[in-house]
Amino acid sequence: MRQFNISGKILALSIVLLFGLSIGGSMIIGYWRTESSKIPTRIESGPFAGAYDPAAIKGSYTFENIESAFKIPVAQLAEAFVFAVSGEPETTQPKSFEAYPQPAEGEVGTDSMRLFVSLYTSIPYEAEEDTRLPYTALALLRREGKLDEARWAELKDRYGVEMESPNEVPKAPTSETGSTLEIKGNTTYGQLFDAGLTTLTIEEVIGIKAGNRDQVIRDHLGAAGLEFSQYKALLQKKVDNVQK
Amino acid sequence: MKQVKRRKKTLRTFVQIFFFIVIALITVNHALEEKGMATIPLFASASTHAVCPFGGVVTLGQLFTSGTFISKIHESSIVLMIAAFLIAILFGPAFCGWVCPFGTVQEFVGKIGKKIFGNRYNRILSPKIDRPLRFLRYVVLLWVLYSTTVTGKLIFADYDPYYALFNFWSGEVAISGIVILFIILLLSLLVERPFCKYACPYGALLGLFNLVRIFGIRRRDSSCINCKACDKACPMNITVSTAEKVRNHQCISCLKCTSEAACPVPRTVEFAGGGKEA
């Protein structure tokens, strides 16, 4: 049998050709992909068979991708993860969460989005041990009726964390005395807004939609069956933080 | 003869630079795109992981068991993995010697080391220490395959100097990756291709193809003048001068030892396949 010699030139050509043909061939048959399809895989069996799997959400998915798969409006995703929305909510990606200041314990990242979607859609997903959810996300789930009171309280303790929101821009105190606002029984939502709290921040604490400017907080909470005294201290803490 | 050798040597360098530039532009484009900045025209955009054939290898376990890719790996890695395997079956780990941009960078840094250390360059470690260390990369390979399959994540990315090289400026690289990159570049001043020799998991896998490849380095004993020029030229410190066929798991098919390059006698050390010469 004859020996076949390969020169450097032939080797170089073979390498370039093999790579070129492989890439070109896979492009022709439509197999070449350098990024994920942005469509999560579906659950194959069980009661949720056929549904998109929250576990398949990747960090590169945009809020828009998640909306089209799980039917969660972008506006609600942006509200839940408001701390990470600095530009267009549609193009915000869960992988960007990690770039923001994280809680002392646990992490708010792509897995937080998976957990949120799971809770929103009731499609089961087991989050990682150190996964956390912003209070804003939990408040939205509660407001939208995705969690009952007991479940909300349980999840708040287990996953809830405070994430610094870009909307929380400290403002100068505007109470009558010019000093820090002290929340009392007659304090209105308008006073909270004037003290620098956003609607989202307030809702994150009380877990329901905030009232009108002129509405007294105690009356509004009482009408919703909530005890004002339970939320007074939390709201006061928020006000104190903003006015520091 | 000298002129011909210089031309051949330049050919491999040209191929290396070509692949380096292509990978660099593609990955830089991706990072620019991620940051919402203007991209380089005429070049595609893909992450470093998407254009690394080793990504195809580490995702195989998950691909076979659940039909999905591990995080950050896509179909392109499978295509490149198949191409690299085809090349390896034919020519051995030519991917390492001709394509891998990180091998290229180590080689180029090594040229500076060669100027600084002269003959001591790439001969610093004693064989007693060097030989067992050459098997370390198989330990790395097993660890990477195991941890990736178990976690479904690219665990190695945090330690991968190749990833760090192309992404160090993006803010997405773990500090461990940057430290390892820095160490490898420093070591490259003393040892040729230290990462390839001691730690590269993909090099370890491709190195196994040296045992079965169709075309390989062959030395004709009858015309060999035993000058050991082939040994001196080998970046991986393989003793070519005593072998008829080089089956060493560290060969990267760079052809530096052949009669096209280092060997002064024509048709004595060749890259060949098939039976005995007619």
Mind explaining what this structure looks like?
The complex is a heterodimer of chains A (about 240) and B (about 280). In chain A, α3 crosses α5, α5 packs across α8 and α8 packs antiparallel against α10. Chain A has three domains: about 30 residues; about 110 residues, no CATH class; about 55 residues, no CATH class. Chain A is mainly α and about 240 residues long. About 5% of the residues of chain A have low confidence. Chain A has ten helices and three strands, in the order βααααβααβαααα. Chain B is mainly alpha-helical. Chain B has 13 helices and two strands. The two termini of chain B are about 25 Å apart. The mean pLDDT of chain B is about 90. The interface between A and B is large, with 30 and 48 residues. Chain B: One of its GO terms (molecular function) is metal ion binding. Chain B: This is Polyferredoxin. Chain B: InterPro entries: 4Fe4S_Fe-S-bd, 4Fe4S_Fe_S_CS, NosR_regulator. Chain B: One of its GO terms (cellular component) is plasma membrane. Chain B: Keywords: Cell membrane, Iron, Iron-sulfur, Membrane, Metal-binding, Transmembrane, Transmembrane helix.
